[in-house]
């Protein structure tokens, strides 16, 4: 069955988007380079990249809808189906996973009653497991509309989504104040955050990420780095506290206790650590 043509934006919406698109395109020497921000622009309008949005981007840039679709379907940041006001992404890549990310994701699935990529019935939360957020210093990490919530536990993550669903104010660990998915998409299109005080409240890298730089500058003495990193996360009332320092055995019941560092001889009984051939001669 042939696919029906994509519907048009209402005239007032089309005019507004065209004006915004013209501003974005003017930033680039080659108009084609504006495709990624234009996809964010149409996503900000409808909460996802629709066929109408794809056709709009193609017309603005002189591309085919197939070329635009190829880009929109390649990047996971672009939604192809409706989602919630808050995109809650749980990092399940290696470090976050062994530090408890898998346990957080499973806990949120059960707590929210949704699976991966699904949205709660009230339209507030879309849950998704995501790959590395480049925030391994603060594992396990949860992101809400691409803002960081560091050093999470299953309990703190459940409280986070409960607050979001209830409309309570939620503050990221660092970075800009939290806003809705559509508002975030507009900023990713290259338009400024116009909320009062939002720019001043934005932050940079966290203390743990800056330790190496501070050591290189001589601001802290060698061997004292662990005294200058972010404080350990706080456990909820019914949770075990996290491991205090790298290399310590996590307490029983902690999500990462089964992955705590061990001596090679203890972790692999079939291949215990021993002297090398040269050392044995």
General description of the model:
This protein is an alpha+beta fold and 281 residues long. It folds into 3 domains: 62 residues, Arc Repressor Mutant, subunit A (Orthogonal Bundle), CATH 1.10.10; 109 residues, 3-Layer(aba) Sandwich (Glutaredoxin), CATH 3.40.30.10; 32 residues, no CATH class. The chain is built from 11 helices and 4 strands, in the order ααααβαβββαααααα. A 4-stranded mixed sheet has the order 2-1-3-4. Helix 1 packs antiparallel against helix 2 and helix 5 crosses helix 6. The radius of gyration is 23 Å and the shape is globular. It starts with 10 loop residues before the first helix and ends with a helix. About 12% of the residues have low confidence.
The largest pleated sheet is described as: 4 strands, mixed
Q: What is the overall silhouette?
A: globular
Given helix and strand content, the structural type is alpha+beta
CATH topology of the largest domain: Glutaredoxin
Instruction: For the largest sheet, list the strands in their spatial order.
Output: 2-1-3-4
**In the CATH classification, which architecture of the largest domain applies?**
3-Layer(aba) Sandwich
Low-pLDDT ranges: 230-238, 240-251, 254-265
Characteristic key phrases:
11 helices, 6% strand, 3 domains, Glutaredoxin, single chain
In short:
38% of the residues lie in helices and 6% in strands. It has 11 helices and 4 strands. It has a 4-stranded mixed beta sheet with strand order 2-1-3-4.
Write the layout of secondary structure elements.
Layout: H1 11-25, H2 35-46, H3 51-61, H4 65-72, E1 86-91, H5 94-112, E2 125-130, E3 142-144, E4 147-149, H6 154-166, H7 181-188, H8 198-201, H9 207-216, H10 264-267, H11 277-280
Parallel strand pairs: 1-2
Antiparallel strand pairs: 1-3, 3-4
Helix pairs in contact: 1-2, 2-3, 2-7, 3-4, 5-6
